[in-house]
Amino acid sequence: MVAWLRQHVRFDHCVIFGYRGASRPPLLFETFSPAESHVFVALYQEGPYLLDPFHHAAVERKEGFWRMRELAPDRFYASEYYRSYYSQTKLAEEVGFFVPLPGKDALVLSLMRLRTAGTFGTADARLLRDMAPAVIGFARLRWPALPNDEPARTKQYEAIAPTHEFDRAHIWKSLSLTPREKQVVDLVLQGHSTESIARAMRIVPGTVKVHRRNIYRKLKIKSQAGLFARFVEIIDARISSP
Fold first, then answer.
1. DSSP E strands: which ranges in the chain?
2. Rg of the chain in Å (alpha carbons)
3. CB 188 within 8 A of CB 212
4. Domains identified in the chain and CATH numbers
5. Longest dimension (CA), the chain
6. What's the CA gap between 173 and 229, in Å, rounded?
7. Is residue 77 within 8 Å of 131, Cβ to Cβ?
8. In what residue span(s) does the HTH luxR-type domain sit (predicted)?
């Protein structure tokens, strides 16, 4: 299927992840070198996937062809997640075929172009969108359901990214945040602006700013960078715990 796609559209990488709610996504297929896989797969599975627009769209059971720019929040490319993790991928653009599976599972076949290659053109995107029904059909034939166990990988990666169950709603459970503050934290980390958070929560922007000030005070931080650092600390602690 990947070879067939390459005959029609140029891309640098392809990766397929399965998604089960907030669980660590199993890797189903990749074209990365071991060094590239460390960034695109191992680091991603440690926790950044929880902030990935593709993960959110898969959990929401979107179907068909989507470009990252169509799914990303309005401040995604200025978010600390983008600066601290996503920029390491050196991608110009990522697009994906979203495939809902039985139950609440889904998989996403991502095609990636590096900055040196530039973004996908309008004609490329139109062609990929037309090819989506065939890609989705092929993917469901290959994976009618997600495997219970992730395919064997190197011991190095298994040590870096063991299987854990994460839930964004409970990441901040150990901290003294209200339910509304936890929701604000989640949206900020995804890359939503104050205005976008206000729309999502159906409150006024001024209330969002009050929530953010209270969050920063409670967590003893001063910026979104500090918030992302605290997120990483919590994820690392969960991975390290027996």
1. 13-19, 27-30, 64-67, 91-100, 106-114
2. 18
3. yes
4. 2-152 (3.30.450.80), 168-240 (1.10.10.10)
5. 54
6. 16
7. no
8. 170-235
